Amino acid sequence: MHFHYLDRYQHKHSAIHNLDPRLKMVVTLLFIISNLLLPDGAWGAFLLAWGGLLCISLMALLGITYTATRAMIVLPFALTAVTIIFTIPGQPIFSFNLSSYPLIATDNGLIRFGSIVIRSWLSMQMAILLTATTSFPDLTYALRSLYVPQTIIDIISFMYRYLFVLTDEATRLLRARESRMARHSTYRSGGSILWQARVAGHMVGQLFLRSYERADRVYGAMLARGYNSEQPPPALIPRSALRFQDWVSGALAVVILFLLQIIGRF
Amino acid sequence: MTLTINTLNFSYPDNHIALKNISLQIRRGEKVALVGPNGAGKSTLLLHLNGLLMGHGEIQVAGLPINKANLPLIRAKTGLVFQNPDDQLFSPTVFEDVAFGPLHMGLPEKEVRARVQQALAQVGMSHYVNRMSYHLSVGEKKRIAIATVLSMDPEILVLDEPSAGLDPRARRNLMTLLHDLPLTMLVSTHDMAMVREIFPRMIIMDRGQIIADGATTVLMNDTALLEAHGLERP
Fold first, then answer.
1. What is the DSSP letter of B60?
2. Does a structural domain hold residue B234?
3. pLDDT surpasses 80 at A259
4. Does the pLDDT of residue A226 top 70, yes or no?
5. Cα–Cα distance between A167 and A172 in angstroms, integer?
6. Closest CA to A113 of A40, A180, A203
7. d(CA A44, CA A54)
8. Residue B12 sits at the chain A interface (C-beta within 8 Å)
9. Does the residue A49 lie in any domain?
10. Pick from A5, A24, A213, B67: CA 20 to 30 A from residue B130's CA?
C-alpha cells in the first residue's frame, strides 16, 4: 500500500531514465556544486539553470511542475538562514525592533538570503529528478561505483527497506489508538492536551523500542547468513561500461554547467 | 440486532476490490467466526466495523448507523482488538492502556478506575494492573488487549486472529475466556478447531465476498466447500 505513496521512482520510458545511473549521479552532484559556486544575486544564471532542469524534466516525461512543487520541502530548512538578512553589512532597507533589540535588514543580506533559498530549491529539484528517474537499486549501484563506503550504502539501503515497515507499524499503532478514541453520551471526550501528548510520546517510544529490537533481529539474520562487517561480501557489478549516449550527455552537462558559471560572473 | 451490514463494497485506492456486496446480521449475544484464506478481506471488513475504513454501503452497530458524525460513539460500541497486541498496547503500564478508552471518553476518575478493575477482572489479569505492558508474554498481552476494549463497555467484541502465535496453554486460556465472556462477538481466525469449539455460527469469506454463512456444525462437515476456500476441517 505505502509503497505507492513513498517510492519516488516514476516508471516511465524516456531517454533520461535510460541513462547510466552513475552518470546521472555525477551530473546531479556537479549541478549542485555549480549552484553553490554561482555568486550571490546571479539571478540570470539561476534562471538558466532552472530552465535546463525543466528541459530534463520534460524529456523525462515528468511535466513542468513535478520537481518544483516537491522541492518546496527544502524551504523550511533554508529559512534557518534568515538571520543573514540582518547580519551582512550593506545599505539598510528596513528595520524593526525585536523586543528592545533593533534589527536592520540590508540589501546585501537580502540578496544573500534569496540566493541561498534559490540554491537549495534548485539543488533539491535536481535530487528529486534523480530519484524520480533512477530506481533505488540503480542508485545504490551508482554510489558503490563512485566508491562511497559500503557501510554508508548499507545504511541508506536499510533505511529505504525499513521505511515501509516503519510507516506500516506507525499506521497500525495510530489505528489502534483511533479505535479507542470514543465518546460517551454524557461526558466531554478527548482528555487534556497534556495527557494526549503523553500518550503520543509513549507511542513514539514504542516505535523506537520496536525498531531497536527489529534491528537486532535483522542483524541476527544477517549474521546467520555469514555477514561479517569487517569483510563485506564483494559487490556484484554486472553492469556494462558507459555507452556513447552517456558520454555525450555527460559532456554536454559539463559544458552547460561551465557556461552557467561564466554567465553567472558577468 | 447488534450488527447489521447491508451491501457493503470497498476498494483500495489502487482499485483493488477488497469487499464485494457484504451483507450480514448478528443478533445480540451471538458468537460468530469469520474464516477464509489470507487476503480474503476479513481484516478489511473488521476495519469497517468502527469506521477506520469507510466503504459504500450501510453498517449499523446497536442501531446506530456508522457515519462521520457518529464515529466517536461507534468506537465505544465496537470493541476492535487488533491481531498484534503490541499495536494495541502503546502505554508504559497495563493500567494506562486499559484506561485509555475510558479516559478519552472523559469519564470521572472513579469510574475509570472501576472500569479498569472490572475489565482486567473479566480477562483474569487483575494483579497485572501496574505491570509494564512491554514485558508481558504474548498470551498475557492478548488478554490485556481485550481488556483495553472491554473497559469501553462495547456492544460487540471484534477480534482479529486472537489465537495466532499463542502456545497451547495460552490458546486454551484464551478460548475459555472467549467462551465465558457474555458478549456479542465477531472473530476472524484461521484456528478451525477453536471455531468448532466456541462459535456456533461461522461465515466463510473469499476474494472479498461472503461464500457461506451458517451453523458451524453444518459448514464444518462440507469438506468440499472448506477446501475450495483454502480451509481445513479440524
1. E
2. no
3. yes
4. no
5. 9
6. A40
7. 15
8. yes
9. yes
10. A213
Residue A182 lies in a domain: no
CB spacing of B87 vs A181 below 8 angstroms: no
Q: What is the DSSP letter of A13?
A: -
Q: Would A129 be classed as within a structural domain?
A: yes
pLDDT value, residue A231: 61
Phi and psi for B77 in degrees, rounded to 5?
A: -80, -35
Which residues between 158 and 187 in chain B have a beta carbon less than 8 angstroms from any beta carbon of chain A? none
Number of domains in chain A: 1
Q: Is A206 on the interface with B (CB under 8 A)?
A: yes
- B34-68 burial string, b = 16+ CB within 10 Å, else e? bbbeeebbbbbbbbbbbbbbebebebbbbeeebee
Residues of chain B with pLDDT under 50: none
Convert the pLDDT of each residue in B11-68 to its tens digit: 987 788 999 999 999 999 999 999 999 999 999 999 999 888 999 999 999 999 999 8
Residue B233 domain-assigned (yes or no) = no
B56 touches chain A (CB under 8 A): no
CB distance A191–B103 less than 8 Å?
yes
What is the reported pLDDT for A2?
A: 44
In a domain, B22, yes or no: yes
- Domain range for B82 is 3-228
pLDDT tens digit sequence for A140-158: 888 888 888 888 988 888 8
Residue B105 contacts A, CB cutoff 8 Å: yes
Domain enclosing residue A120, as ranges: 2-146+241-264
| Overall domain count for chain B | 1
> Is the model's pLDDT at A118 over the cut of 70?
yes
- Using CB atoms, pick whichever of B14, B106, B152 lies closest to residue A190: B106
- Give which of A4, A169, A180, A214 to mutate to test B binding, by max B Cβ within 10 Å: A180
In a domain, residue A45? The reply is yes
Residue B147 lies in a domain: yes
Smallest CA–CA distance from A3 into chain B, residue: B14
- CATH number, domain with residue B12: 3.40.50.300
